[in-house]
């Protein structure tokens, strides 16, 4: 949301963190776990200075929620803020999920684990 017409002030805790992220097709991608901030002209964000959202961070954090700790930001998949189309009850993207690195874990599980289960390579809802 870089153009002046699309800029708005949001409360990260209220409007972003924990919200579900949907791709351009309405498919869930994950939840907003954190934000990457940048200062003016791409410089690092500093406390007490103007900053903007550079990316939203999503990812597999279930293990850390169960066992404690926190996933390092470098391990959380980033979705560029430019790919965000709308912030409402969910964060809606303008790109399909297959163009994002954010769903690599889901693809890996599908291709390496689920596909090896008998019947795991077809969609049961497609057969009627």
Describe the 3D structure.
This protein is an alpha+beta fold and 128 residues long. The termini are far apart. Residues 1-5 have low confidence and may be disordered. The strands form two sheets. A four-stranded mixed β-sheet has the order 2-1-7-6, with no helix packed on it. It has a three-stranded antiparallel β-sheet with strand order 3-4-5, with no helix packed on it. It has one domain: SH3 type barrels, CATH 2.30.30.240. The chain is built from three helices and seven strands. Strand 1 (20-22) and strand 2 form a beta hairpin.
CATH topology title: SH3 type barrels
Q: In CATH, what is the homologous superfamily? A: PRC-barrel domain
Any guess at the CATH architecture? Roll
Through-space gap between termini: 43 Å
Name the assembly state: single chain
By CATH reckoning, the class would read: Mainly Beta
Low-confidence spans: 1-5
Q: Total domains, how many? A: 1
Strand order of the largest sheet: 2-1-7-6
From the spread of the alpha carbons, the general shape counts as: globular
Number of helices: 3
Strand content: 15-25%
- Helices and strands, in order, run as HEEEEHEEEH
The main pleated sheet reads as: 4 strands, mixed
Secondary structure class reads: alpha+beta
- Radius of gyration from the CA trace? 17 Å
């Amino acid at each position: 949301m870089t153009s002046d017409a699309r800029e708005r002030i949001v409360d990260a805790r209220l409007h972003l963190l924990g919200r579900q992220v949907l791709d351009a097709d309405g498919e869930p991608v994950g939840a907003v776990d954190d934000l990457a901030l940048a200062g003016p002209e791409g410089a690092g964000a500093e406390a007490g200075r103007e900053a903007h959202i550079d990316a939203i961070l999503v990812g597999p954090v279930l293990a850390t929620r169960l066992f404690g700790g926190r996933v390092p930001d470098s391990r959380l998949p980033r979705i560029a803020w430019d790919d965000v189309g709308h912030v409402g009850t969910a964060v809606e993207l303008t790109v399909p999920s297959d163009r994002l690195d954010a769903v690599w874990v889901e693809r890996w599980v599908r291709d390496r684990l689920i596909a090896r289960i008998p019947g795991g390579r077809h969609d049961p809802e497609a057969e009627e």
